[in-house]
């Protein structure tokens, strides 16, 4: 696969273009489904980029929408072809959150709120291993190692010399206090977190217990933004058996406002770094 082709992003862009064509035609997803003798859910999944789309699907949809400009058809067909290629994460087999990885790989910036654990992009290998073992106790050692490798590979976006991911993380104090692995693993993890927080494109804030009630009490979420204006921002909510992706402007705006409140209630960057260092020292004193 060419390095500049991200199948997840191609599917999103293609879905957006197909949705525009349908709306220009004044048709509902249900009407299109009836014309093509498919389910309405298939049309919805094609438009939101959650389902792989074939060139035949594109051809059939362009026929329904009466697209006469062959250049438009050819462009959509090429996007469909690119969207069926495999991203780097496919080499690791079936990854439950592969859609998210595809979005993260292409994102320009990422804002994350984590109430329970250190966010994946900032984890050490030891911490990631202990965390996955604890969260998925019935998972085989082979699958755990596969998940750890994927997590470490995702961190390439942070270390990239050119166009690194701009990352802003708000961590609840609980994420620092919860012992994952043992005290040594935690000390190493928090020292690593402090080190990464000095990077110009990484910002880490701690939301202390004393902040009381706050807008993040409903749980973890992430907001992904992209450099291409054609790609709408996405709010990602991680689930146990399935994940949720919100792309409607109103939904994204609500979560963005919530995030501003979280940042305002959290400690400053400098105080957060000192807070993390103090907790790390306590772990060091306990080993």
TrEMBL record:
Domain of life, source organism: Bacteria
Gene3D superfamilies xrefs: lambda repressor-like DNA-binding domains
Pfam families, alphabetized: DUF5753, HTH_31
Residues annotated as signal peptide: none
Alphabetical list of InterPro entries matching this protein: Cro/C1-type_HTH, DUF5753, Lambda_DNA-bd_dom_sf
Domain HTH cro/C1-type: from-to ranges: 18-72
SUPFAM superfamilies to which the protein is assigned, alphabetical: lambda repressor-like DNA-binding domains
Name assigned to this protein: Helix-turn-helix transcriptional regulator
Species the sequence originates in: Streptomyces gibsoniae
């Amino acid at each position: 696969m060419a390095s500049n082709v991200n199948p997840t992003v191609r599917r999103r862009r293609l879905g957006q273009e197909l949705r525009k064509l349908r709306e220009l035609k004044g048709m509902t997803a249900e009407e299109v489904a009836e014309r093509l003798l498919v389910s309405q859910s298939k049309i919805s999944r094609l438009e939101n980029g959650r389902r792989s789309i074939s060139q035949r699907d594109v051809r059939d949809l362009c026929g329904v929408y009466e697209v006469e400009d062959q250049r438009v058809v050819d462009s959509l067909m090429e996007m469909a072809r690119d969207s069926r290629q495999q991203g780097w994460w496919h080499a690791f087999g079936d990854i439950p959150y592969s859609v998210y990885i595809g979005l993260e790989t292409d994102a320009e910036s990422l804002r994350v709120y984590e109430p329970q654990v250190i966010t994946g992009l900032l984890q050490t290998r030891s911490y990631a291993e202990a965390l996955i073992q604890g969260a998925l106790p019935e998972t085989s050692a082979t699958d755990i190692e596969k998940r750890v490798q994927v997590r470490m590979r995702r961190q390439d976006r942070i270390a990239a010399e050119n166009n690194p991911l701009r990352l802003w993380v708000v961590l609840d104090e609980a994420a620092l206090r919860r012992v994952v692995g043992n005290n040594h693993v935690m000390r190493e993890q928090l020292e690593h977190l402090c080190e990464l927080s000095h990077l110009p494109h990484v910002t880490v804030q701690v939301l202390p217990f004393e902040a009381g009630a706050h807008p993040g009490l409903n749980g973890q979420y992430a907001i992904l933004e992209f450099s291409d204006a054609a790609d709408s921002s996405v709010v990602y909510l991680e689930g146990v058996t399935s994940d949720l992706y919100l792309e409607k402007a109103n939904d994204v705006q609500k979560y963005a406002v919530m995030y501003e409140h979280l940042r305002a209630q959290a400690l400053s960057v400098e105080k957060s770094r000192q807070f993390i260092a103090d907790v790390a020292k306590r772990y060091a004193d306990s080993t």
